[in-house]
Amino acid sequence: MSLDLATIQAAHARIRPHITRTPVLTNARLNAACGGKLFFKCENLQKAGAFKARGATNAVFSLADVEALRGVATHSSGNHAAALARAAKLRRIPAYIVMPSNSAKPKIRLVEAYGGRITFCEPNQAAREATCLRLLEETLANLVHPFEDERVMAGQGTAALELLEEIPDLDYLLCPVGGGGLLCGTAVAARALRPQIKIVGTEPAGADDAARSFRAHQRIPLTTSDTIADGLRTSIGQTNFALARQYVDDIVTVSEAGIVAAMHMIWDAVKIVIEPSAAVPYAAIMEQRLDVTHRRVGIILSGGNVDLDALPWIGKKGAP
Amino acid sequence: MSLDLATIQAAHARIRPHITRTPVLTNARLNAACGGKLFFKCENLQKAGAFKARGATNAVFSLADVEALRGVATHSSGNHAAALARAAKLRRIPAYIVMPSNSAKPKIRLVEAYGGRITFCEPNQAAREATCLRLLEETLANLVHPFEDERVMAGQGTAALELLEEIPDLDYLLCPVGGGGLLCGTAVAARALRPQIKIVGTEPAGADDAARSFRAHQRIPLTTSDTIADGLRTSIGQTNFALARQYVDDIVTVSEAGIVAAMHMIWDAVKIVIEPSAAVPYAAIMEQRLDVTHRRVGIILSGGNVDLDALPWIGKKGAP
């Protein structure tokens, strides 16, 4: 692996014309509630609604012209699929996307809107990989894995780059962990720019393989997951876990009720739409999984793709 | 009236340390839908959740020290109340707020959170004014009217100032109209900075006094109102109407269904929380009340204070 600050800076230069420089928001009410100072990097306001646009765009624009012509392919039920379809459209090359047949309708529509060529498969990991492999063989397209890909990780790290450019003196940097692409890009960028920063991955207790792996010092993939945070139902990747061990200070977990409460609180106070996965770091603060009193805390809000007609706090018992 | 660009620029210098410079967001999907280019000035991300922080802060910080000591007072069911309480707290003076007894609970809580001293009254205009007058006599506080106040209008005009600083070449500038404070500040600032700009006020058909007054060339106050846009149930003020006739190009109206559809669309595409009043300008575009094809259109999203547990598109027939 050669993921380092220079790679991430090169990715930033490459993708800058194609992505949004997302704002960093603060909120007096949330600061008062935790006793620290929170800086929200709003990747929910990113193109295609998530930080995934960064990694996918970097991968697509890293390809040589002759490679690019064959297109790109991936398997994803969510934001990476839309981000890759968008990046491919920008480069005018085909994007072949394998999606499980039970994918959320808004995510399918988003991929279609960007012109992605969808192949549906049975909703399990084996079917996803087999279908993707078949597509790769047929099309000779370039695989862009959602997180086990250095170009993707380098792209994801550009959010931390921008955040630390604006707020250089952070004590903590928090982000959600699914496959670990965002975590690794973030950690490598932040560790280089600010060696003393504490980098904390945050994960739903219902999909806590990264936290368990981190404590066990070996990768223990998920056998099952149960969380509303649909972006985080994946096991951390092999290369991602190796990097996380090297660069990350801690990985903490949060409850499902905590995720919903954090999501509601951020919508209500900060006035932005974030998806459940993006609420996980703030849930860790609400549930006091780390002490941020008098600390300056960067939080990467990973995305905002959520079904407005099926909100988790509406029509449920025990909603906040 | 001496409201002019210089007054608005002075207001901006005065309030800048106390308010957020809100971001201007764009969205490819909404641009594609209307054929124009939309620039959303996000006052929903403003302190206390609405542009009202600008006017109230300008009024409070315009007071001489000796006046300020007696505090400020107003009657308001909504965002102006919270904004005034917040500004008073910043200056460490009391804020006396008359609120109708049927005010929305989140708005009451917000005023309380900023330390506002609330007096409840019967929910009608006469009771509001009588109660406020009594309070003014008892406390000798300074009245800060929500819109018929030059300091308030000058403050509200600073949003357009910032927007035009970032995007100078707008063809249109749209904002909602209630009492007309935002419309007048916006129109005076924009007309001075860009004489050829078209300034369009947008209003719910269910509270269309400003549109009717504009066409009749005389002020016709509301006798009743029926709209989900709770910030716009007020009649346009006398001084506000006089200024609007001078500076505004048109006032158009939108349907209730259009407001809800526009609100849903902005949440879904732009990933931000806006209140119904803030959706009215985009509703005017969706309902083709003006032709924005190939035009660059500034839209002031007025606020984001909405009850997340009672969204208008949930549990209603005919929701989008």
Protein architecture, described:
The structure is a homodimer of 320-residue chains. Chain A is α/β, with parallel strands linked by helices. Chain A has two domains: 5-50 and 149-301, Rossmann fold (3-Layer(aba) Sandwich); 53-143, 3-Layer(aba) Sandwich (Rossmann fold), CATH 3.40.50.1100. Helices cover 44% and strands 15% of the residues of chain A. The first copy, chain A, has helices spanning 5-15, 28-34, 52-62, 65-68, 79-90, 105-113, 125-139, 150-156, 158-166, 181-193, 209-216, 238-247, 256-270, 276-286, and strands at 24-25, 37-42, 72-75, 95-100, 117-121, 142-143, 172-176, 198-204, 250-254, 296-301. In chain A, helix 1 (5-15) crosses helix 8 (150-156), helix 3 packs across helix 8 and helix 10 (181-193) runs parallel beside helix 12 (238-247). The first copy, chain A, is globular. The model of chain A has no long low-confidence stretch (mean pLDDT 95). The A-B interface holds A 23, 25, 28-29, 44-45, 47, 49, 113, 264, 267-268, 270-274, 304, 308-309, 311, 313-314, 319 and B 23, 25, 28-29, 44-45, 47, 49, 113, 264, 267-268, 270-274, 304, 308-309, 311, 313-314, 319.
Would you spell out the secondary-structure blueprint of this structure?
The structure is a homodimer of 320-residue chains.
Chain A: H1 5-15, E1 24-25, H2 28-34, E2 37-42, H3 52-62, H4 65-68, E3 72-75, H5 79-90, E4 95-100, H6 105-113, E5 117-121, H7 125-139, E6 142-143, H8 150-156, H9 158-166, E7 172-176, H10 181-193, E8 198-204, H11 209-216, H12 238-247, E9 250-254, H13 256-270, H14 276-286, E10 296-301
Helix pairs in contact in A: 1-3, 1-8, 3-5, 3-8, 5-6, 8-10, 9-10, 10-12, 13-14
